[in-house]
Specification:
It is extended, with a radius of gyration of 18 Å. The protein is mainly α. It folds into 2 domains: about 70 residues, no CATH class; about 45 residues. The relative contact order is 0.05. The longest helix has 29 residues. The model has no long low-confidence stretch (mean pLDDT about 85). The chain is about 85% helix and about 0% strand.
Length: about 110
C-alpha cells in the first residue's frame, strides 16, 4: 500500500502537491516557455495543463463527495482494471506520444 493510500481524504486534499507533481509542473512550464510560441498559444497550453492536472485530482474527490462510500468500490474496480491492462495502457501512451512527435517533426519540416 502506497503512502497516499494510507492517508485520509482530508489529508490528501490538504497535501495534494508532491515532489513528482511539482517536478512535472516545472517541466511543463519550462517546455511552454522554451517553445517560443505566441502569447495566446502560451496561455492556451498553460490552461490546458492546468485543466488536465486539476482533473486528475478533482475527479476522485468528486467521486467521494457524490457517491460517498460507494466510490471505494468504483475506485477499486478502476485500479484493478488499470493494473490488469497496464501494458496496454503503456503501449497506447507511447504510441500516441510517438505519433505526436512524428507529426510535429513532419509539420516542422514542411513549414
Amino acid at each position: 500500500m502506497s503512502s497516499s493510500e494510507r492517508l485520509r481524504m482530508g489529508t490528501k486534499l490538504g497535501f495534494g502537491v508532491g515532489a513528482k507533481r511539482l517536478t512535472l509542473t516545472i517541466l511543463a512550464a519550462a517546455s511552454i516557455a522554451l517553445a517560443q510560441l505566441a502569447p495566446a498559444e502560451d496561455v492556451g497550453l498553460a490552461l490546458f495543463y492546468i485543466l488536465i492536472s486539476t482533473l486528475v485530482v478533482t475527479v476522485p474527490v468528486l467521486l467521494y463527495l457524490v457517491f460517498g462510500e460507494r466510490a471505494d468500490d468504483l475506485i477499486a474496480r478502476s485500479r484493478a482494471w488499470i493494473t490488469a491492462n497496464e501494458q496496454l495502457l503503456a503501449f497506447a501512451t507511447a504510441l500516441a506520444f510517438g505519433v505526436l512527435l512524428i507529426l510535429d517533426g513532419t509539420v516542422r519540416l514542411v513549414a
